[in-house]
């Protein structure tokens, strides 16, 4: 395991229970988030869909509510997967790294979501991550990303040392220009479909971006 992976796993293992509690009902207050997930669920064809970087499973569970009966959630943090399995018994949840989905065959997924899952990947590793997404998502299958967007007045990289009531964390969070992410996805073989950016809602500090590609 790389130093980057170890830091992400340790940090999310630490905050897993608090994170799951804090965001348990978050989607109920986010109509844009729900709308983007609904579009994804409708566009994905027959077959399994992946929630890559699923955390405690709230998005995977929402996809089940939208009629996607075959949902695979993957997360690097065993504590997050334990929360997901306890809270949401419907989807299948597995511990794994989203940049090395060795248990997912080429083109196995009818679509995939990376819901705030790229925010801790060092920028130089993102092209390889998107190539792995392209490998596991079948041709023309949708991929939906959500992430914090850059602004002229906020830093593009934020050091995270405390979150969800816990200190002692050690990882970076990256904000992205949606146009840059779109170009990197195009390099990996995805075509743009829909781009949306909404303004921050408490406790968010920056705009939130959504990219749907196929």
UniProtKB/TrEMBL annotation:
Protein name per UniProt: SAM-dependent methyltransferase
> Source organism lineage?
Bacteria, Bacillati, Actinomycetota, Actinomycetes, Micromonosporales
Alphabetical list of CDD domains matching this protein: AdoMet_MTases
| Molecular function GO labels | methyltransferase activity
Q: Which GO terms describe its biological process?
A: methylation
Pfam families xrefs: Methyltransf_25
Q: Which organism is it from?
A: Catenuloplanes nepalensis
What keyword terms does UniProt attach to this protein?
Methyltransferase, Transferase
Methyltransferase domain mapped to chain residues: 51-141
């Amino acid at each position: 395991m790389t130093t980057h992976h170890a830091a992400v796993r340790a940090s999310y293992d630490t905050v897993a229970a608090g994170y799951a509690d804090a965001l348990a009902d978050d989607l109920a207050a986010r109509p844009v988030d729900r709308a983007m997930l609904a579009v994804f669920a409708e566009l994905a064809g027959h077959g399994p869909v992946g929630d890559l970087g699923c955390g405690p499973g709230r998005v995977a569970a929402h996809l089940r509510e939208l009629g996607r009966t075959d949902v695979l959630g993957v997360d690097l943090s065993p504590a997050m997967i334990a929360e997901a399995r306890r809270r949401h018994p419907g989807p299948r949840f597995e511990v794994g790294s989203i940049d090395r989905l060795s248990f997912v065959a080429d083109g196995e997924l009818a679509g995939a979501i990376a819901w705030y899952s790229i925010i801790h990947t060092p920028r130089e590793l993102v092209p390889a991550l998107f190539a792995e997404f392209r490998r596991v998502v079948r041709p023309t299958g949708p991929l939906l990303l959500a992430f914090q967007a850059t602004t002229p007045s906020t830093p593009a990289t934020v050091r995270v040392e405390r979150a969800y009531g816990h200190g002692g964390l050690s990882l970076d969070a990256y904000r992205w220009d949606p146009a840059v992410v779109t170009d990197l996805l195009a390099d990996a073989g995805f075509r743009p479909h829909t781009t949306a950016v909404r303004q921050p809602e408490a406790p968010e500090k920056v705009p939130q971006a959504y990219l749907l590609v196929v």
